[in-house]
Write a structure and sequence with these properties.
Layout: H1 2-11, H2 22-30, E1 35-38, H3 46-55, E2 59-63, H4 67-79, E3 84-87, H5 93-104, E4 110-113, H6 115-119, H7 121-128, E5 132-137, H8 152-155, H9 157-161, E6 168-173, H10 178-188, E7 194-197, E8 205-211, H11 215-224, E9 230-234, H12 238-250, E10 255-258, H13 264-275, E11 281-284, E12 297-302, H14 309-316, E13 326-332, H15 334-345, H16 349-367, H17 373-379, H18 393-398, E14 403-404, H19 406-418, H20 425-432, H21 438-442, H22 459-471, E15 475-476, E16 485-486, H23 488-494, E17 501-502, H24 513-517, H25 520-524, H26 527-545
Parallel strand pairs: 1-6, 1-7, 2-4, 2-5, 3-4, 5-6, 8-13, 9-11, 9-12, 10-11, 12-13
Antiparallel strand pairs: 14-17, 15-16
Bound molecules: adenosine-5'-diphosphate, magnesium ion and zinc ion.
Length: about 550
């Protein structure tokens, strides 16, 4: 049988090989044994029932919670010439009847339904006339109150399952904690079933949590190093989506908003533009993303704290589906935590308990100084064993060295002074790197002694340094990306009386085309480390060449 399954994989779906666990699950189903499949989003759950459906004589029923998900799948199957249809409220009476007739005549291999359609008497009667071989429940976590989108209708499946005594039951989900898993097994009576648990570790996702200080500024910095990369920014509220969208637009970003308050037409259009790469960024509430299968999402940023680990995991799961590196950043603040706590306090009973547990688990992830993969995988019941994943901020910071950055700080600070403390970090970096931009030339800043003295660093590095100088209170700034002015402490640096130390945050430095070209296996080799080492060597070389005091372009401080 599995040979035939492989044949379908190659010749109907056009894929070379099974993904992890697909073959095992399909074998189990073809043996007519029940199964629970827990596989991350994008892992390839659909094939686990689509291939058996083609090999069974009878009908395969697929219960799915969302009409849009059903529609996408059915359309795709029809393109492969597979007789698949759905029954739901979006069909006209005529279409509905035609689909019913096709089921009755045994022309259909796969029937997609929402649970509420399945519960209807006429549906049950129709299906009673059919030989149902496989009863599939997709997004099976909806059955559990402990899951993140509980659907009371899913509860009815317990009863309905009895209608199909000869059918194998296959339940699939991407989000099942041990607790939810138990619920699914209990409710669906998967007593003798086997559970297939795929690893939830997405090795190509770089995980990072940053303190939310000046979120707009942080976002702009993050985007600055990700030009042309496709990405999603999640916000907590519609209002926040709108505000951030406007700000990003103002800064010239290619961006569209997405939230449930927009018309369906507009939502679809914005989503379509994002998928086709007509725009670079989508700013969205959690309403965005269900069922989206865009391979080249290079980053997912959380402007606000996600509601719980499950939704966080689902959302970051939309990044890096092509297996190349993708970056996931959460801006985390205590006030966000209080916002969520406030909503939890409005709830009661189990719902409140569940929400509280979710918050606690998520804070564990946000606040850990261990590898981020430990609490994340732990949440899904998996023990993460590697000491250093090399792909999260905490793992990288273990060997982040605090360096003497005095020379570079002096260059930057003196350049800020030379230009009258009227410019932002980007402009100052341009001068340091000898940019021939119009603005620089018009201002005569190519005549400055600080012009072109900072070529050894990429612009991104200078921006990071500037950030660090702001954080360490050498520089002052009134607004996001506003002009930088020097503090008294900075004058001490310029006078050579104080040294500047810091560890530049490496996780944001290596980006752009280089990051795109890497393959997953190279990602595993932790390329960030070696690139940074190269940079560091280069800097050392440079420092060695220069006599001390390194950069005596001291401004006229009198
Ligand atoms: P899930 O439901 O687990 O989130 P899907 O079934 O939607 O994932 O599959 C995600 C993507 O992976 C789809 O584009 C699908 O065509 C692709 N895919 C699934 N199985 C394979 C495979 N064996 N080889 C290559 N691509 C696959
Ligand atoms: Mg799916
Ligand atoms: Zn790690």
């Amino acid at each position: 049988m599995i040979k035939e399954a492989r044949n379908k994989l190659n010749n109907v779906f056009g894929y070379e090989d099974f993904r992890p666990l697909q073959e095992e699950v399909i074998t189990q189903v073809l043996d007519k044994e029940d199964a629970l499949v827990i596989m991350p989003t994008g892992g390839g759950k659909s094939l686990c029932y689509q291939i058996p459906a083609l090999l069974f004589d009878g009908l395969t029923i697929v219960v799915s919670p969302l009409i849009s998900l059903m529609k996408d799948q059915v359309e795709q199957l029809q393109q492969y010439d597979i007789p698949a249809i759905f029954l739901n409220s979006t069909l006209s009476p005529d279409e509905y009847q035609r689909n019913v007739d096709r089921v009755r005549n045994g022309e259909i291999k796969m029937l997609y339904l929402a649970p509420e359609t399945l519960m209807m008497d006429k549906t049950r009667k129709l299906l009673a006339t059919q030989n149902v071989d496989l009863f599939t429940i997709d997004e099976a976590h909806c059955i559990s109150e402990w899951g993140h989108d509980f659907r009371p209708d899913y509860r009815e499946l317990t009863e309905i399952r009895k209608d199909f005594p000869n059918a194998t039951c296959l339940a699939l989900t991407a989000t099942a904690t041990p607790r939810v898993r138990e619920d699914i097994e209990d409710i669906l009576k998967l007593d003798n079933s086997e559970t297939f648990l795929a690893s939830f570790d997405r090795k190509n996702l770089f995980l990072k949590v940053a303190d939310k200080e000046d979120p707009l500024e942080q976002t702009l910095d993050f985007l600055y190093t990700r030009k042309k990369q496709s990405g999603i920014i999640y916000c907590f509220s519609r209002k926040q989506v709108e505000e951030l969208y406007v700000e990003l637009k103002k800064e010239g970003h290619s961006v569209k908003p997405y939230h449930a308050g927009l018309s369906k037409k507009l939502r679809n259009r914005n989503q379509e533009m994002f998928i086709r790469d007509d725009i670079q960024i989508i700013v969205a509430t959690i309403a965005f993303g269900m069922g989206i299968d865009k391979p080249n999402v290079r980053f997912v940023m959380h402007y606000d704290l996600p509601k719980n680990i499950e939704s966080y995991y689902q959302q970051i799961g939309r990044a890096g589906r092509d297996g190349l590196r993708a970056d996931c950043l959460v801006l985390y603040s205590r006030s966000d935590k209080q916002k969520i706590q406030y909503f939890i306090n409005q709830k009661e009973g189990t719902e409140k308990k569940v929400a509280e547990k979710h918050l606690k688990d998520m804070l564990k992830f946000m606040e850990t100084d261990e590898c981020r993969r430990v609490p994340l995988m732990g949440y899904f019941g998996e023990t993460y064993k590697k000491d250093n994943c090399g792909m999260c901020d905490n793992c990288l910071s273990i060997d982040a060295e605090v360096e003497d950055l005095t020379v570079h700080a002096q260059k930057f600070l003196s350049c800020a002074v030379r230009t009258g403390e009227q410019y932002d970090a980007y402009y100052i970096a341009d001068i340091l790197r000898g940019s021939t931009k119009e603005q620089v030339l018009e201002n005569g800043h190519d005549e400055l002694p600080t012009y072109n003295i900072g070529n050894e660093w990429a612009k991104e590095q200078w921006i990071l340094l500037a950030r660090m100088l702001v954080n360490q209170e050498y520089l002052d700034r009134n607004e996001s990306h506003g002009p930088l002015s020097l503090t008294d402490q900075a004058r001490a640096v310029l006078d050579g009386k104080e040294n500047v130390f810091g560890a530049l945050d490496r996780s944001d430095t290596v980006v752009g085309d280089q990051a795109m070209e890497r393959t997953t296996s190279e990602v595993e080799k932790n390329y960030e480390k070696d690139l940074f080492e190269q940079l560091r060597d280069k800097r050392k070389e440079l420092a060695d060449e220069q006599a001390v005091p390194p950069y005596a372009i001291f401004p006229d401080t009198t």
